[in-house]
Amino acid sequence: MKNVHLSSAPRWYLEGFIGESSSVRRIVINSWPFRIGRRADLSFCLPSNSVSKEHAEIWHDGASLRVRDLASRNGTFVNGARIDREVPLKPGDVLHFADHEFHVGFESGASAGATMQLDRNEWVASLRQFEKLFEEGAAMPFFQPIVKLPQPDIFGYEVLARSRLAGLESPKQMFAVAARLSVEGRLSRLFRREGVHLGQDLPGLPNLFLNTHPVELAETALVESLRDLRESAPDQPLTLEIHEGAVTDPEAMRELHCALRDLNIQLAYDDFGAGQARLTDLIEVPPDYLKFDICLVRDIHTGSDQRRQMLETLVRMAHDLGVAVLAEGIECEAEGEVCAQIGFDYAQGFYYGKPAAVVQMAEA
Q: Do 267 and 299 belong to one domain?
């Protein structure tokens, strides 16, 4: 296989420790094939007697990153399993070349190749802690009701990230560890997968609103993971939420929207108004749902006439584009009533139901 040098911005990398170094190294995968071994002229030289001269190679087949062992003495392992054939790789996978451990990452920025100043023990502990999330039963998605106004009747649920692990119960804690390891996308995919799996036990086949992490918009794994979800739940109504602040590339959003249409998955822009209100992007690629951030609707029942008129204008603009609007963070009956009067189609908040596990809903 002839070596192909890579120069485009999105880059795969391996991250781990080399030798006795006390800092995490990020090794950019900058050519196909990317050969790993003890030989100094390979793409990635690991000067260790446990590593074969030509140990393994990584390449991209146009659809996915793949790795194969080159008949090494001490083996190549993916997520703890020794491989005897080529296997695909995803961001967050753990690779071992003999006893040398690395994890696979993907980024679209320009910071690849940098050495990260992170203590070895801290990095290893973070990786071990993160991997526990993928053990059976550790990830425990919660579901928060979304109601249709003005009744209000339950229309769907937002899937929220929670876990059973001490110190990793909240999304903030989990994604802080994931960010340290540059595997936020892998964690996001885990909760979508678990959310759809458990959400099928909810009554009435509700619409499940699934979150994304901004890094996923540059990863091919996003659409691949959604295709797998659709195959696992062909009749389940699904909506993918994209944070308003991540909607910065209209062409990329158009491509994603087309892919979602093909999969019969709807699109929602989340936290509209929390940052820059991207009305131009809304016009360029209208979603199916626009979720107004809590900052726009909080205490709307006691707000000024000008504030209410502003919301009415935004809601009318969305409706003119054929977009349904949802008010987030409703905490009392009066807020919900005013939002219904303004023209919101849906609402979500503690007043209608707090996030809970499926089993807690069954016991209620």
A: yes
